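Customer escalation, tier 2.

The customer says the design service returned an amino acid string that "doesn't look like it belongs to this structure." They asked us to rerun it and document both sides in this ticket. The original structure tokens are below, unchanged.
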């Protein structure tokens, strides 16, 4: 049964609290990642995140419920590319709060890729939302260009493109169990990320980081793996199985709110007037892009019932992780 057949469009108080909690977990995740990058090189940190998310959970979620080609594809695009780029961008100087905001542009890339790959023709409202969100990115780029490295900004934009691609792959896969899917996806990027880390960050740097591991460093890995990935995606998928995606998806718009707030509180990141303007444009544009209906130019290939990976903003007809979250997605 589809989510809209399982529950009314309003959320029960406990479900409302859970939806806000997931958005908070995903938003605070950016601050935790920033702290973790003080302990690990970015690619090693990303590899550890997926290793801990996959083990031991992979032994308890059962066998994969979709074809391996989808698990491998999403694992490489979301896990290796999206999170590798995001963590590298943040390690290169992209602020945590701004990263949580800019990554939301993934909804625009999701809509664009879905038009090409799935025949989802955007409505005028969705096109307007894409334009508003892109204007927000332009304002954010001006703000970052005046205060930080544009190269790091570009890496986070590239991560958002990969997140959009992974969202479309996830929708094609149509996994019936969000938690099962994300745990198996987490097994894929571990070795590629470790190999890239050894090649680019160097074995000496990786070993030094592991030898210097303390409680704070270990805590960041546990948070981004178990709290953000396992709990976050599991709870989000649970909500989407019980409510229409159009009811659940708007809560992901709270992710940058929690991201920017936590970064300001714990990392002393300042928020300029331009950044507030960028936030208003991006959140408004993402809301229009994500919640406006779509028109299909080709018959649909399935009816997915899980969100894209992490922290997810999904259109009402097809659920969104994070990030891919992310990333995640953003998720992370």
């Amino acid at each position: 049964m589809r989510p809209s057949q399982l529950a009314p469009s309003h959320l029960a108080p406990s479900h409302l609290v859970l939806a806000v909690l997931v958005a908070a977990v995903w938003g605070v995740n950016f601050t935790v990642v920033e702290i973790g990058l003080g302990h690990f090189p970015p690619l090693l940190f990303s590899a550890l995140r997926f290793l801990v998310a996959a083990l031991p959970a992979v032994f308890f979620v059962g066998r994969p419920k979709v074809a391996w080609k989808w698990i491998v594809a999403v694992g490489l695009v979301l896990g290796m590319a999206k999170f590798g780029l995001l963590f590298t961008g943040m390690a290169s100087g992209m602020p945590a709060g701004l990263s949580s905001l800019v990554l939301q542009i993934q909804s625009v890339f999701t809509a664009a890729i879905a038009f090409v790959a799935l025949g989802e023709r955007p409505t005028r409202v969705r096109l307007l939302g894409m334009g508003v969100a892109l204007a927000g990115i332009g304002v954010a780029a001006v703000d970052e260009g005046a205060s930080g490295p544009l190269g790091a900004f570009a890496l986070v934009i590239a991560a958002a493109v990969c997140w959009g691609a992974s969202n479309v792959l996830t929708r094609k896969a149509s996994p019936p169990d969000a938690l099962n899917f994300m745990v198996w996806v987490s097994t894929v990027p571990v070795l590629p990320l470790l190999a890239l880390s050894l090649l680019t960050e160097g074995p000496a740097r990786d070993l030094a980081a592991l030898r210097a591991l303390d409680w704070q460093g270990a805590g960041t890995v546990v948070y981004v793996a178990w709290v953000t990935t396992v709990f976050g995606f599991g709870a989000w998928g649970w909500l989407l199985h019980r409510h229409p995606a159009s009811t659940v998806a708007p809560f992901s718009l709270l992710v940058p709110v929690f991201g920017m707030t936590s970064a300001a509180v714990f990392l002393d990141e300042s928020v300029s007037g331009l950044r507030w303007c960028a936030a208003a444009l991006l959140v408004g544009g993402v809301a229009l892009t994500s919640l406006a209906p779509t028109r299909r130019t080709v018959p649909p290939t399935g009816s997915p019932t899980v969100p894209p990976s992490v922290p997810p903003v999904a259109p009402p007809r097809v659920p969104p992780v994070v990030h891919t979250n992310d990333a995640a997605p953003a998720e992370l």
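Tier 2 assessment: The sequence is consistent with the input. Residues 215-240 form the longest helix (26 residues). The mean pLDDT is 83. Sent an explanation to the customer and offered a walkthrough call.
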